Fold:
Amino acid sequence: MTARTDLPEYNVWESMLTRCRNPRHHTYPAYGGKGITVCERWFSFDNFYEDMGPRPPGYLIERRDGKGNYEPGNCHWASRWEQNDNRSSTFMVEFRGEKMSLRRAYKLTGSPASYSTVYARVAQMGWDVERALMKASQCRPARIRTRKREAMLARLRKIESRIGRHMESDMEQPSVTDFDDGEISVRLDGKELRGWSYKDDTERRTKMLCAREYVEGWCDGREAR
Structure:
């Protein structure tokens, strides 16, 4: 099989190699800088694809042993929930007979309270997980969250509109790429100008906004020159 850069698995493979082998990349200290490596077999994309297979939509590459290397016996495709549950910093709970992250339990139940409220109840106040999840919050954070979300969307639409005008002018500009493995990159002619990492969908939206703002600022500065 010939490696194709438009395959989603190729982006995952390329990102994996970069964070383990490029000391100048912003994610290197958390991977290659800690001694995490990619096995020699996976220096070839064809071998990587043969071992891992097609990536299910929305899944990420996951190391079963978080301190282990990227190699066939230690890697598999995992959902975001599975990957978050495997982080050493994830707050884990026993919920309905199963060990899972508090955020996953929050998502499964559709709790009427905000996640920050549920977390405070369990982690700081010692509430039972079921009670913490199912009791409605006494305050009204939803309205505030809605206003913040609407403001973010309006800001993003404004940025997209300005970037669109730059595109119409045929001016060369960077592109924003979300690799679906916790990284967002702004690139120009294959060279990374700036990168961001995220852990969940909320942080993903925020980092995407940062990336769009970076492109807007880059275009404005180029236009001024």
